[in-house]
Specification:
Layout: H1 3-14, E1 23-30, H2 37-56, H3 60-81, E2 85-95, E3 98-108, H4 113-116, H5 133-149, H6 172-184, H7 189-198, H8 202-212, H9 218-225, H10 234-250, H11 258-264, H12 270-283, H13 287-305, H14 310-324, H15 333-349
Parallel strand pairs: 1-3
Antiparallel strand pairs: 2-3
């Protein structure tokens, strides 16, 4: 299931619960062994719950106050523990008819900074919109959301005119945009790349990344989008990961930058890791990736399966179930570890096959 589909299903569920019902369902900590979940809840839980409470109020002022409180908590955590970086990653979802929130205290230790914060510096350029494509992408996305909320659209990929699409060509209006992107992405490839790498606006860089997925050669798109995984902004990285998730599910013949995706499983934010796990879940049924997944990624997937963050844990559990062909309880760490040990031993005993992913 792609990241857009998950978003849309969450929106459907939201219609049965109001924002005012939002309650904190849990806290997790990622990136350190020094700060435990219990410590984080005891020391910062009250402030985090106030942040969630403010966020549940349907007003711009309350949201602004919530974000200001979040920044204060992040600074406090970073200062008190000496972390190189910290962020409270917020997610909300609907379960049992209730609107729930989850907060991940994401941190990076100073010793891990070279590996986990190896992003490009913030771009400072002002690159022109090539052929008006970036503006057209914004209108396309706005129209898609409007039509979806009106009940006009579904979430399938039957109407895509390219290897990737957000909304497809389900209506004549959307089809015009899809045809525009397909027709002009190739001719504006270099300009879109320049926007993605150099423009100071994360929104423009993100739009450029999505538009590069409309190139006629999906393998070229996949290769070019790997640069977006180095972007300092989450939304730009998310654009690339969303495209890769679609490729992994719907176009298994496309070559994916698997070593870069391995690194993304340990990216600093829960949003990064959630989207990276969606790609891995799509890869899990592809025999081409099996060896690499087992030897290089499954240890970390098991770690993410034990996460308290529901979206990440659920996707990791699904990926491991597909890869292993087993249905152990997700809390049965012994059985999962034994399976992985056997699978790694078997893979190491096999000769490598040309064209298959390899460590």
């Amino acid at each position: 299931m792609t990241t857009l589909t998950l978003t849309l299903l969450a929106w459907f569920a939201s219609q049965s619960a109001s924002a005012a019902d939002l309650v904190l369902d849990g806290i997790d900590v990622y990136g350190t062994e020094r700060l435990t979940v219990d410590d984080a809840d005891r020391r910062y839980g009250k402030s985090i719950r106030e942040m969630v409470k403010l966020r549940s109020r349907d007003s711009k002022a309350a949201f602004k106050s919530s974000e200001a409180l979040r920044e204060r908590i992040e600074v406090t955590i970073r200062t008190e523990w000496g972390f190189a970086w910290s962020r409270l990653s917020f997610s909300d979802y609907y379960a049992d008819g209730k609107h729930k929130a989850f907060v991940s205290v994401d941190v990076v230790e100073s010793k891990d900074r070279p590996a986990r914060l190896a992003f490009r510096p913030l771009p400072t350029g002002a690159v022109p919109d090539p052929g008006g494509l970036l503006a057209a992408w914004g209108r396309y996305m706005d129209l898609g959301w409007k039509l979806f909320k009106d009940g006009t659209l579904n979430v399938n990929h039957d109407s895509c005119l390219s290897f990737f699409c957000e909304w497809g060509a389900q209506t004549p209006e959307l089809r015009k945009y899809e045809e525009l992107f397909v027709a002009q992405a190739k001719d504006n490839k270099e300009a879109l790349l320049k926007v993605m790498k150099e423009d100071k606006s994360p929104a423009k860089r993100s739009a450029a990344a999505y538009l590069l997925a409309y190139l006629p050669d999906a393998n070229e798109s996949a290769r070019l989008l790997s640069d977006a995984l180095d972007d300092p902004d989450l939304d730009v990285r998310s654009a690339a990961l969303s495209v890769y998730a679609d490729y992994a599910v719907h176009h298994k013949e496309v070559f994916l930058p698997i070593t870069r995706l391995q690194a993304a499983l340990d990216f600093p934010t829960a949003d990064d890791r959630n989207k990276a796990m969606a790609v891995v879940a799509g890869m899990a049924s592809n025999p081409v990736h099996r060896r690499f997944l087992i030897l290089k990624m499954s240890d970390h997937v098991l770690r993410l399966m034990r996460s308290r963050q529901p979206a990440i844990s659920d996707t990791a559990y699904a990926a491991m179930g597909i890869l292993a062909g087993e249905s152990f309880d997700r809390r049965d760490n012994v059985s999962w570890e034994r399976w992985l040990e056997r699978a790694q031993t078997q893979e190491l005993a096999k000769p490598e096959v040309d064209g298959a992913s390899s460590p």
